[in-house]
Amino acid sequence: MSTKALLKTAREKLNKKDFEGARDAAERVLDFESSNYMAHVFLALSAFELQDYEKSEKLYKAAIELEPNQPLARQGLLKFYEKRNDTDKLLESLKEFAEIYLKNEDATKLAETLQRVVEIRREHGTKIQLVQALIDVLPGSPYYPLLSTLPEPDATNPTATTTFWIQTAIHDSFPILEEVVSIVEAEEQARFAKEFSARRTRLGAPKPTIIRRELDREICGSSMLPALYNEILNHPKAFEDVRRATEAKLIEFKQRQLYATPSTDTTKAELKHEFTALVDGVVFIKRPNENAWNQCLQWQDWEKFEDLDQTFLRNYVQFFPDSMLANVIKGYLLYHNIDPADDQDEEKKVAEQDFTEVGLDVLLNIPLESLDSIFSSRVASEVYGDVEDYENSATLARTGLKHLAELETSLGAKLTKTRVGFQVVFSTSLVHLCPPKNHDQAMSLILEILSVSPYNVSALMSRGFILQARKSWQDAKDSFDKVVLTVPSSYQALKAREESAWCESRLEEYETAIVHFQSVLQTLEAEEGREFEVARCLWRLGQTYWSCGGGQREQAYTYFIQALKKDSSYAPAFTSLGLYYLECTQPADTARASKCFQKAFELDPREAVAARHLAEGFADEREWDLVEVVVRRTIEGEGGVAPRKESEGEAIHAFQIALRAEPNDHVLWLRLGEAYGKAGRYAAAIKALEHSHELDPADWLAPYFIAEAQQGVGLYREAIQGLTTLTEQRPTEPGILSSLASAYLEQGVSELEAGFISRAEGSFLSAVAEALKFLSTQSGLRLIGWKTITNAMFYLSEVSSFHDQEAVLAALRKVKALLPAESTRLKDILTPPDLESAVIGSDALKVSILSADYRLSLSPSNDDASAWHDIGMGLHAWSIQGNASDALAAFITKCLAEAVQREPASAGYWTALGSAYITSNPRSAQHCFIKALDIDNKNAEPWCDLGLLYLYHEDIDLAREAFQRAQVLDPDCALAWVGQALIAAGEGDVKGEMALLSHAAGLDRPVSEGDYTLSLRVFTEINRQILPRTKVVDHLLPIFFLLNRFCGRQPDNAAGLHLFALVCERLGHKDFAKELVNRGMRILERVYEEKEDPVVERQFMIANATLARLLLATGEPEDSMITFETVLGLLQEEDALKGVLETQAKLGIGMGQAVLRDLQEAILSLQYAQGVAPEDEKLRAHCSILLAQTLWSTRNAEYCEMAKEELLKLVSEDARNLPAINVLAGLGILTKDEGLVDAAVSEIISLPPDERVALDHDGNVDYLHIQYLLSQGNLAGAISTAQKSLFFEPSNVVKLNTLAALLLKMRYPEGTLALLSGHEGELKSGSTTLILGAVSNLLLGTNEGLKSALRNAQRAVMVCPGKAISWQVLACVRKSIEGQKS
């Protein structure tokens, strides 16, 4: 069949829906003619209908490649994509059709295609994709020329053509253009908002303004909006309002783009040109676009009013009359006597009316916060400066300069004149604002102005004023003279002439100055409204005559009177009159002088001379409140803030201001140092005070305040030394004595916290001695002295037993002698101490409480809150010592409540009251702690107390939260960590508890109870486990130091001393342990004598057991046995520990008898112990082992056999009883009984390695086995056993040394050195490894070997100099070396 026939068959099959037949026919065609176009199309259509889509698409594409200009395959592929809903490829195909129709100039088909593209994009595409589709039908599109040939649409018959929408868009593109613009604007705004939100939340994100600038730069740089806006502006069908709105959008867009472009970008100049051209065009054609006019106004470069375009300003007011800037412009024009109305007859209106006051009112009535633009800030700052409101003027100028810098950066241009204008206003305001406070800043601005404008009159005048304040009179005169030469006929020149004359007066050129003053005065008097200036000139003329001295002062008086006649409110004239009445009248008219000073000070608080004379007069009359008023007003007038309570920072600022004017005033340096000290800035205080002392070494106040500052930073010794030196110069000065007592007290507290009990005791006694000396020299300040005594005695009471009994007793007696014989408040609660014999801590506490009570009676109406607090806290401490009662608790609460009522702002008093309520009234306690937090919410202590309250009442969640808050406020608060540990302990979290307690113990100010609890937990855990001795030591060493610190802080805590003794016993410090136990027993004896408490008696019995054990260990068996008998005598039948303690006592007695060789009695005692031992396998085993050892010691065959039977019985009952195995093996070795040794160690040796190591940590079984093999002469067997032992535990240095020693016995030094290689340099290997290495190298006999032997022997001696074998080996090595040399 021919190709045509097959193609016809394929077409017929397709028409009949026989797609398989069509496929076969098309494939047969392609077999003959592979490039047949129609066969590809038919086969593609068949494959599509048979759902072989991939093949169908490939065939369509192959057909298109064969005949690119034939539409059939393209149409098929288009339908294929349409049916497959493949939008992207469908659009690609449509675009290809559009290109073909464009090439073929088929406008209708092109319009249909593009219209379909738009429809698809509206239904399936994004907004941006729709925009791209719409742009294809707008002018500028490559399709637009062909599409424009389409006829205009018939609106009455839209269905007449298939391209109605395209025809409408082509002949009226404005709606499409508006739609595109709205879509692009919305998309860019959404992109901006999304990106801003994402970047703002990034870690380390920059400021929002920077992010906005970055986004503006990114978005505007790729935006199509400018072109679209221009299309709308140029469109013939755009209405005027649309054009204006679009123009405003374009200006705003260009502004954003320009401001976001960095100065380094080369496009910024072009963007600036485009933006300014747009703005200038809007302004030129007077289009009312407020943003454009505002921009044009802001970048006006002007220094003076004359530089501004007044026509522009009038137009602005005309177009935007209701805007804030229009109000500013209107006021500014009126202020310069110009009518804002554009009137042709302007000169006539100006002549008729003066608008200056109206303009001033307009500008001054504008709220300052609304003056946030450059122009408004510049205008308002100038006007406020003219009316001498320098503070607001400076603020506005500073704000304006900040905005100007931002505008210059954004605009990419410098506005030099505007900057100079701002700087002139700013510097002028700073010069006159609280001089000389801001003169340094003003001078830097003035120098910058003069570098740009050397003859700027305002800058020259300001420079002259600053130089006057610095008393640089000649330089100031030169500056004023330059003004006169620059503008000779202006008012500024007249003012400069007056200031120049004043400089001449100060330079003692009196005659010249008088001539110039009179010339200025003549000119001023000729002008109206110059009364103030005339008064000032007259006063200065009078001051010049006053400076001449002698009879000229009468002439000065005349000028002062004339000045006041011209202006009765001119304050300096009153000051000068006051001085005249004081110094020139005979006798001095102090009354008139005082009135003049008072009047001058009322008119101007900056009149420092008048203020000083007023303050001195009030001080002489003891009117201290009036002195304070004068001081406050003076400092406020000078621009500072008067020092008052809790405002040390403001006082520091005030003194710094004063020191700029008087840098060598030692009093100011002194007060500055004092203020620094009160503010807690002690380092700065010391520097300032040392400088004050350098200026006036004779002033004792500087060293006094230096000592106080040193006391503040904890340098108590230096502070005490300085204060002691001052007492030698001023022995009765109350402030020095009080501070010295306080320094001793704080030093004692610091030493007590550090555990230096003896030092603390001496410091507290010194504090009491100084306080008593203070009381002996003062009668009106007794409360201060008694407060120090109360605190010193309170802290002294924490030391229960004193090192210097006589000194403490003497101090207590001196204080008690000054106290009343009886206290009405405390007579039913507390009895005074006898102080007849040795005193203890409770005696000092009683004296402290009685001292606080006496201090309360000295205060008027019992109104001393501190005394009430001290009584309550003292009684609380006394109740803890075992004197608690309901009546005492109620009285303590009453005292603390009285303290709170009298001083409710004290957080410490509220905390103390809350602590008193913890057990009795939890609600009130919670209220007190929360009240303390309200007063001082940054203090961790109330949070800790609150946490303990919740923990005590089992509210764990609240307790945990409170402790966490305390940790946040103060991570070094140990009590918070201990509280968390208590919570962990309550929840059974042992690891958490240990971790928290360990952290608390490592803090700078640990809690003693935390140290004890951690030590107890560790010691208990060690006793519970079976650990090697090295690990036991590693665990015990840290708690050794903790307990040492605990006992240093609480030397009378018997439980702490006993635990410390147990730790020392395990570490081998048995003598120190005995001392600790004896101290604890003395404390328990004293307590028992007072209370006869059975708990104390039981503790005493246990302490005796510990002491007896220690006596036995230190070779004192007789004393040990006596002490054990004491334990037996103290045992009670109902005691739960009776069996254990009785067994231990009998064991101890038996061991003591054995040591004394009274073996029969020892056997009886041990048998008794074995009989009374409770059901405790370990304790019973110990009894049996000790009994067996004692039986063996008799050397009696029968007893020896009994000992073996006892041990074999133990091993048979517990094959892993290591102590019994060791003893049994030792007996076997001694008797050379191989069977006994095998019976003892076989069970242990057969265990798996890990179990064996866990059971026999110290390798005792291996050691005994090796010794047994050596005793049998089986060296090889011993080495084999040692090798196995080391293989199981290769890091064990002892086993390593054992194997090395055995290899040496075999005379195998090479093997020994190989084994020890790498271990000789390790510190943990010790001297034994070094000795073995030295001997091995010595046996080798080589030169290098001898050098290594000498080196190892020397290091062994250095590591352990007390070990004899090290010296012996060293001697052998040296002898060998010398022998080799000889």
Automatic annotation (TrEMBL):
Superkingdom as given in the UniProt entry: Eukaryota
Transmembrane segments: none
Pfam families: TPR_16, TPR_22
UniProt xrefs under Gene3D superfamilies: Tetratricopeptide repeat domain (1.25.40.10)
Cellular component GO terms, alphabetical: Ski complex
Alphabetical list of InterPro entries matching this protein: Ski3/TTC37, TPR-like_helical_dom_sf, TPR_22, TPR_rpt
Repeat positions for TPR: 37-70, 666-699, 940-973
Keywords: Repeat, TPR repeat
Protein name: Superkiller protein 3 SKI3
Source organism: Coprinellus micaceus (Glistening ink-cap mushroom)
